[in-house]
Specification:
Layout lengths: L11 E4 L12 E7 L2 E6 L5 E4 L1 H5 L8 E2 L1
Antiparallel strand pairs: 1-2, 1-5, 2-3, 3-4
Length: 68
């Protein structure tokens, strides 16, 4: 299943479903877009990391809860 990422948005919020070097399953990430790509803030750790669009589109990796 695929998540749809709109071309224009202020923030996408949702939990990550897998463990990575910056996240654990269930961590809520706030994604914004800038010139460098998709920047995410992990609300549990307070750390920023860039995310590949393919990771955000894959519903098995990231679940979109809210788009602003």
């Amino acid at each position: 299943m695929k998540n749809r990422i709109p071309r224009k948005f202020n923030r996408i919020t949702g939990p990550v479903n897998i463990s990575t070097s910056h996240t654990r399953p269930g961590d809520v990430i706030h994604i914004t877009k800038n010139d460098g790509g998709y920047l995410g803030l992990n609300t549990r750790t307070g750390k920023h990391a860039y995310y590949f669009p393919a990771m955000l589109r894959n519903a098995e990796i990231f679940s979109i809860q809210e788009v602003e």
